[in-house]
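Lab meeting tomorrow. Look over both lines:
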Amino acid sequence: MKKILYIPALLFSGLSLAQSSPNPKVAIDDNGLGRQFPDCLLSGSVCKLFTTDQDPKTSNANAYKTGENSFCIGIRKATISEEKQIAIMGKALKDVNSGESLTFRINTPYTVEQDFLKAININSPNVVIAAGSYPIEINAEYILIRLSF
């Protein structure tokens, strides 16, 4: 009888974990990000973010909602040149120290496209990312830029 009581507890804990997992990722168009976006980064601005039907597990860049007023752009480290790393983070990955605080600077306000917002499940109209500095995180696979509005 005691074994039967454990099953609902295990199911409930599994359901809780599933609900607390990160939002699904949406692939960002490599053409827009791979050419246009970094070029704008190099000039201190942000270009347009376009989603694609590519599998997020194999795409070079992804985006996902992190809160009602925030989202994250993840760029696969292996696909970005040293020049673009410097444009994004102010330094190359090889020069980043463990635990170092990095930021991504947006020099002018950026209006996010509605199609992109809809794809990452943000339902706010006229989203504008203010000019300023936004935190960057680096993990084993990605450079993560956390943007909020």
User: Anything to note?
Assistant: Residues 2-20 form the longest helix (19 residues). Strands lie at 26-27, 61-67, 70-76, 102-106, 110-111, 128-129, 132-138, 142-148. The radius of gyration is 18 Å.
